[in-house]
Design brief:
With 215 residues, this protein is α/β, with parallel strands linked by helices. Helices cover 40% and strands 20% of the residues. It has helices at 20-29, 31-43, 95-125, 162-174, 183-192, 196-205, and strands at 2-4, 9-11, 57-60, 63-71, 77-81, 84-89, 131-135, 142-145, 150-154. It has a four-stranded mixed β-sheet, with helices on one face. The chain has a three-stranded mixed β-sheet with strand order 7-9-8, covered by helices on one side. Helix 3 crosses helix 4 (162-174) and helix 4 crosses helix 6 (196-205).
Length: 215
Amino acid sequence: MSVLPPTGRVRIAAPERMSLDTVRVFAIAKLPWIKKQQRKLQEQERETPREYIDRESHYLWGKRYLLKVVEADEPPSVELFHGRIVLRVRRGTDTARRQAILEDWYREQLRAAVSPLIEKWQRLLRAKVQRFFLQRMKTKWGSCNHRARSIRLNTDLAKKPRECLEYIIVHEMIHLLEPTHNARFVALMDQFMPKWQSRRDVLNRLPVRHETWDY
């Protein structure tokens, strides 16, 4: 069962052999949880759509920057300069391409930050990450495949404070030790990252990307 943003639509995946009545009873039993998740989605602040134009607000590691777009006959690039994110593009570059260039830059920033954090927590947790992946994710900040010993991270984490990124990495790496969110998982989080709930709460309070959802 999933409660999907932005409206809180409920989706249930079940085997074809399962009767509709069984699915309905399951959904009814989960109503309190469903309503709780829907309230969270309704209260979640969302960013306005981005146009990738001058003086538009963009974020890196939780800090707000104004975007400066420079059109020039040279390869596209992105850099931080005098408190601004400077996006250099060729003349006539459309919004979609500007977005793609900036998102590639965010991915680079995230990759550079993730590797040393994984190395640090592999030593502390004594849990080996075989591979990590970075991708845009609409409904999660991260995920773990404990059998393949791999983790996936939402590229939007580059926009959030670094302590939020570290919390998500530790959360997913602890799933290598305990795949579920049971009492042992919580105990391990408490042991290795005391007050992890405060980092989670900071992340949950921050605005999330504006998305057009296609179910």
